């Protein structure tokens, strides 16, 4: 449970969600990217200039010992070492971030001659990635875009960043090396070009395109027509059965007038909030804030991602509904 490098994304997220239930990107990756964004974006040659391999190995060991205790000091780490840890994290994943199944398809995208079709292919490939991979890739590409935006200071343009990051995404130790002799340079440039497109056009790659929506709608409509009943007597019978079932359930079910707010990092017990027709979300948040203040809450969680004091504004709180309907 303490390992951070060489661990499957699903396992990392499972551990992280014990601390922060809604975590979608590994906390270690978030911390690495946050550190680089704060102090590394202006560093000349960031990502390209290698840090000390001895220091990076030592930092890896310290992280696996101290990261979840909150004792690791990011402000004492050299930025080139942090970028080395970032590349090491991606490279050491047991399975490629782009997945072993789809990695050949990602690599083949650069063979499509038309730019629009290349982007459509990338869009489709990203949409079918497993959710942890897709969320992690999105966080990485957003950071790489910020690096490119500071090109004047860090001397890292789009092609530099793509060339440096491509091997970490496409050359995975767990995959057999089948590169034909003499093709190394061509394949490396092709992989870098795919990474370049993902960084440059990333805003287009996370949306479901209109033609896909139209196809799904058409498919649903055809399925709906296929199962329509021609016999009115059967439809009437089914309608009656549903009506009777709804009537019984309505009579048996007594609507609940209490919701429970769970915040395991802040409150030991669930906070029960009584509802009526006039209750608003702001009322729930206000009661939650009042309960926190009564308990004198003032903590820094174990991964230094939440920092608060006894003075708290309602605007700093967000209420998330998990499952069901807030009125039930």
UniProtKB/TrEMBL annotation:
UniProt key word Transmembrane: no
One term under GO cellular component: cytoplasm
One Pfam family hit: Ubiquitin_RHG40_C
Gene3D superfamilies: Rho GTPase activation protein
Ranges of residues in domain Rho-GAP: 7-206
Record key words, sorted: GTPase activation
GO biological process, one term: regulation of small GTPase mediated signal transduction
Name of the protein described by the UniProt record: Rho GTPase-activating protein 40
């Amino acid at each position: 449970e303490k390992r951070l490098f060489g661990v499957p994304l699903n396992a990392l997220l499972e551990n992280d969600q014990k601390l922060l239930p809604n975590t979608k990107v590994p906390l270690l990756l978030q911390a690495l990217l946050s550190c680089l964004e704060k102090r590394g974006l202006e560093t000349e040659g960031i990502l390209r200039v290698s840090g000390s391999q001895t220091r990076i190995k030592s930092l890896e060991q310290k992280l696996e010992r101290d990261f979840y205790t909150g004792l690791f000091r990011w402000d004492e780490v050299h930025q080139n070492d942090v970028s080395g840890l970032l590349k090491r994290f991606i490279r050491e994943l047991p399975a490629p971030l782009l997945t072993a199944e789809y990695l050949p398809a990602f690599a083949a995208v650069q063979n499509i001659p038309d730019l629009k079709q290349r982007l459509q292919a990338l869009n489709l490939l990203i949409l079918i990635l497993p959710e942890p991979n897709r969320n992690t890739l999105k966080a990485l590409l957003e950071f790489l875009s910020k690096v490119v935006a500071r090109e004047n200071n860090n001397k890292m343009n789009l092609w530099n960043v793509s060339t440096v990051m491509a091997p970490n995404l496409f050359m995975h130790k767990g995959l057999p090396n089948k590169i034909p002799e003499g093709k190394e340079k061509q394949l490396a440039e092709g992989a870098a070009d795919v990474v370049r497109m993902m960084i440059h056009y990333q805003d287009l790659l996370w949306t479901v395109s209109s033609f896909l929506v139209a196809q799904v709608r058409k498919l649903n409509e055809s399925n709906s027509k296929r199962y329509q009943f021609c016999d009115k007597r059967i439809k009437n019978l089914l309608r009656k059965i549903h009506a009777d079932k709804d009537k019984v359930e309505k009579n048996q079910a007594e609507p609940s007038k209490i919701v429970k707010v769970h915040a395991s990092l802040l409150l030991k017990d669930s906070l029960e909030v009584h509802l009526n027709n006039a209750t608003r979300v702001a009322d729930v948040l206000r009661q939650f804030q009042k309960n926190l203040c009564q308990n004198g809450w003032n903590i820094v969680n174990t991964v230094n991602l939440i920092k608060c004091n006894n003075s708290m504004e309602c605007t700093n709180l967000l209420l998330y509904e998990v499952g069901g309907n807030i009125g039930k």
